[in-house]
Specification:
Layout (H helix, E strand, L loop, with lengths): L1 H237 L2 H22 L11 E5 L2 E5 L1 H28 L9 H5 L11 H20 L6 E4 L2 E4 L1 H8 L2 E2 L2
Antiparallel strand pairs: 1-2, 1-5, 3-4
């Protein structure tokens, strides 16, 4: 029992001691917790103060940095403003240049349009003028044809009247001739032999003269060839394309004419029974020579018309005597029956009139028919003045 009592007391004391120890431990733990809380609060306050101090330091540093950077920012801002101002001025300048360029382009387009309008107006006037010239030329040709027809009718009437007078005169002359026949028959036998001898002598001299003329013509041809090449180079330098084209055409005609002459043979076309006036002097030729002089005037007129037309198209001044055809004036010449100088004289007379008509695009001296230009009949008669001898 004692043991139990001691054991119970020991247990009670142990319990009491354990309770006191637990209370002490609990109080100790509560005290340490308060201390730790106080320490933590102090640490928090201290850290908060440090953070606040750090924020203040950063704010001061930021303000100091801003104060330090403010002049540079102002300088950069001023630089940006100046750059923007320069950019604006450059854009304004470029815009002004573009506006001026557009204005110049518009003025140039307006000027080109005005030039085109004026050119079209000039072209229209030129077409109207050419149409009017063509109409006037056709009217002149028609009037000329009417005049030629009237002159032809008058000429036929004159020929009829002349034939009637000739018939009456022939009757009278026949009567007179019958009266003289007896006298002529008496002298005819005496003079027959003498006339035969004279005719043979004249025939031999005439053939020799024609051959000499042909030889002189061939010699002159080589000289004209040299002049032709000089004339061709001159036209090329002057850029007279139409005149150069015409000169080439005339040269081709001369070459064909030379080929024709190589096959031509001399024929006796009878005595000199035609007379023509040149420079106040009279010259005689036969029927073939008279026809050749007429061809010279007609050929000269046609070649002159083409030459004048070419100079007009080239815009060259009026100059018929500069043309190679005028200088040469030998196209169509055979070398027989008339002198070359006479042939060239009448060729140039026709050429000058044809050149004038071709240069001024009119038909004053000639007309166009069946693809050729020919001089009017009355003009040809006035130039040549050919007379038939009995």
């Amino acid at each position: 029992m004692n043991y139990l009592k001691q054991a119970g007391l020991s247990v009670a004391i142990s319990v009491a001691l354990l309770g006191a120890s637990g209370l002490a431990n609990a109080q100790g733990r509560r005290g340490r917790g308060d201390e730790r809380r106080q320490e933590n609060q102090s640490d928090r306050d201290q850290r908060q103060q440090q953070r606040q101090q750090e924020r203040q330091n950063r704010e001061q540093e930021r303000q100091a940095y801003q104060q330090q950077q403010q002049p540079q920012q102002q300088q950069r801002s001023e630089q940006r403003r100046q750059e923007q101002q320069r950019d604006s001025q450059e854009r304004q300048q470029r815009w002004e240049q573009q506006r001026q360029q557009q204005q110049r382009d518009s003025q140039e387009r307006q000027q080109r349009w005005e030039q085109q309008r004026q050119q079209q107006q000039r072209d229209g006037q030129d077409r109207q003028q050419r149409w009017e010239q063509d109409r006037q030329r056709q009217e002149q040709i028609r009037q000329s044809q009417q005049r030629d027809q009237q002159r032809q009718q008058q000429r036929q009437e004159q020929i009829r009247q002349s034939q009637e007078r000739e018939r009456v005169w022939q009757q009278q002359r026949q009567q007179q001739q019958n009266n003289r026949d007896w006298d002529r028959n008496r002298d005819r036998d005496v003079n027959r032999d003498r006339d035969r001898d004279n005719n043979n002598w004249r025939q031999r001299n005439w053939q020799q003269e024609q051959q000499q003329r042909a030889e002189r013509y061939r010699q002159d041809w080589q000289q004209r060839q040299n002049y032709l090449y000089q004339r061709q180079r001159l036209l090329e330098q002057q850029r007279r394309r139409n005149q150069l084209r015409y000169q080439q055409r005339y040269l081709d005609e001369l070459r064909r004419d030379q080929s024709r002459l190589q096959q031509w043979r001399y024929n006796d076309y009878g005595p000199y029974n035609y007379r023509y006036n040149r420079g106040g002097s009279y010259y005689e030729t036969n029927r073939y020579g008279a026809e050749m002089l007429q061809r010279a005037i007609n050929d000269g007129y046609q070649e002159g018309f083409y030459a004048g037309q070419a100079d007009r198209e080239d815009g060259y001044s009026y100059s018929p005597d500069e043309a190679f055809a005028y200088q040469d004036a030998s196209y169509g010449y055979d070398g027989y029956y008339v002198d070359l100088g006479d042939y060239q004289y009448y060729f140039r007379e026709g050429f000058r009139r044809g050149y004038e008509d071709g240069y001024y695009s009119r038909s004053r001296y000639g007309r166009y028919s069946n693809g050729t230009y020919s001089i009017l009949g009355n003009i040809l008669e006035d130039i040549l003045g050919m007379q038939l001898l009995n």
